[in-house]
Amino acid sequence: MSSNVLDLLSLAVTDLGGAPRPGQQKMATAVAEAIEKEHHLAVQAGTGTGKSLAYLIPSIAVAMDSDYPVIVSTATIALQRQLVERDLPRLARALEPELPRPLEFAIQKGRGNYVCLNKVNNAQTDSGVEEAEESLLDPSQLSATGAQVARLHEWAGETEDGDRDNLPQGVSDRAWRQVSVSSRECLGATRCPFGEQCFAERARARAADADVVVTNHALLAIDALVDAPVLPEHDTVIVDEAHELEDRITSVATAELSPTAIAVLAKRAAKLAVSGADAAGDELAEAGDKWTEALKTEAAASTNNDRFGTGIEGRWTGVPEALQVPLAALRDAAWKTNRQVSGIPASEFANDSKKAAERLAVIVATEELNDTCVRILNASRVGEGNSADAEDLLGEDVIWYTADSGARAPKHVVRVAPLSVADLLRQRLFGRNTVILTSATLALGGKFTAMLSRWGLPKSTPTLDAGTPFDARTHGILYVARHLPPPGRDRASDASVDETARLINAAGGRTLGLFSSRRAAEDMAEQLRTVVPYEILLQGEDSMSTLVEKFRKNQSACLFGTLGLWQGVDVPGKSLSLVIIDRIPFPRPDDPLQQARQEAADQRGGSGFMEVAANHAALLMAQGAGRLLRSVDDRGVVAVLDQRLATKRYGSYIRRSMPDFWYTENGDTVRGALRRLVEA
């Protein structure tokens, strides 16, 4: 298959007006061999390699000879759209003479990404907000959500695909919940009065007949977690943006106990008003109230007794004794409600599709609430394992409490997340399919070891660094401002502000500022707007897409932001010649999940700091620095305002994870280089 793949790749590249790229050819050959020999492969392919074609061509070749599609999973909407709207249509046209039949491709997302026509046509209140939730919202929230829901209802009658990502203007998650359902809440195409028009069913049908199915990491996670398959039957999976895989899988497997969500669920159960269901709803509401009050009381008492003033906020090694009984009662009430509502015959609502859908939704939600309570209680059993089931693929759980700021009062939320998803991936993804994992940043510290471990793959797994056509050492400079004081938690130092201003002025604007926190970005923008003559665009002051487009078009503007800008921003050309990173982006020291993972690594005899914190930072630094060179003609500087990149032992490890730019600590040299770029 390898020779045929190279022929197809050559045909596609020629048709698209491109030129042969050795890294692309090397990657395509390796992917083809991995699929043919049924072994996993991890490929690092830098910007400009053409990795999409390098894995799509072998995927198309194998799909043409197979009864099953190839699944391509991505982390971002932007890449999904690129594949479905640009890359695959162009390949279909270019390869048509050499393929035995026309190439079929489709995009598949979770059901919750599509408008549910049954829910839209059975709106529960004039405001569009479910009555159970309406009673818990303040007037401003209700008004804003109601307006968005009204717009969604209008859009539902106009859209061709019902896909949230194609909504002209975004809406809140609360508003979207009023017009969508999860797969478990769905009535099913045969029982739903709108089954024939269902957007999700249409998307699923297209995917079932496709050769290549583009999906996202979240749906890939759901397909691995549930016993009933969500994706079409397949043998081969391509995971692009693979550096995001662990976090996306973790996110899907994270659950929470929210007082508002419990109260809404109880009201929904009571509204079914069928024998025993209303009583069960009342019992759930009472159990939810007792749990919330117990949580608030314990939080207040522990805070008063804690000289640091944090109390029970943060990670729990076990459920506080005073909360165990109310949590167990909430678990039991959720299960009782589930059994009572499940006992209502589906035929009871044969002529009422709204209540039939609500019955399913309540059954699903109460089961999930019960499961969450069980996970939290089981995670508290020190020395007994943190799983209810010894075969549980998620293994140990981590629990933590936060008093999230709310519009009217703190939202007391308890969350639970898996310590590791390695076992899940090992058994449910890698154990069932041939998997190709690729990204521009996989070799942390110059090695694939860290990423393989996070995925649950052995060190012996084949890997490939396909390189990049960019000559990083002649096109880019890595500047570390070693003379600056170590970064603090408060405002940027005067020296850091002055250094940043001098760099921006030398670059003539054209700066992407990557900051470790929103506060840091806002503070730096506020101070610089009075001392530099260039427009500073700030994340949060407009939509991300609008800000990036303004930055791209205005060749003297600066764009400042946080993690949303560290990955996925693609601005080639003269609009970007300077990337400023304010500090090494270590995870927050109070991040409960990262704390637990560091401790687990230490207990295994490793270094928790290096395995978790340093790897987290190295990945983001590689992604952030990767924003600089986006085309072969790009030139510029990555300036790091954190002296630790030069002075600490872990600094060299992080630098090895970044593009191999020419390195300097001389500010005069860097400013001179930036001024020459302006004059060029």
- What's the total helix number? 27
Largest sheet: 7 strands, parallel
CATH architecture of the largest domain: 3-Layer(aba) Sandwich
Q: What separation lies between the terminal Cα atoms?
A: 47 Å
CATH topology descriptor of the largest domain: Rossmann fold
Radius of gyration: 27 Å
Main sheet: which strands, in order across? Answer: 3-4-2-5-10-1-11
CATH superfamily caption of the largest domain: P-loop containing nucleotide triphosphate hydrolases
Low-confidence runs of at least 5 consecutive residues: 382-391
Class by alpha and beta content: alpha/beta
Give the overall average pLDDT: 88
Number of separate strands:
18
The percentage helix is 40-55%
* Name of the CATH class of the largest domain: Alpha Beta
Mind explaining what this structure looks like?
With 680 residues, the chain is α/β, with parallel strands linked by helices. The protein folds into four domains: 2-104 and 210-251 and 423-467, 3-Layer(aba) Sandwich (Rossmann fold), CATH 3.40.50; 111-194, no CATH class; 255-418; 472-679, P-loop containing nucleotide triphosphate hydrolases (Rossmann fold, 3-Layer(aba) Sandwich). The protein has 27 helices and 18 strands. The strands form three sheets. It has a seven-stranded parallel sheet, sandwiched between helices. A seven-stranded parallel sheet has the order 14-15-13-16-17-12-18, sandwiched between helices. Strands 6-9-8-7 form a four-stranded antiparallel sheet, with helices on both faces. A hairpin with a 6-residue loop joins β8 and β9. The longest helix is centred in the middle third of the chain and has 28 residues, at 277-304. Mean pLDDT is 88; it is low at 382-391.
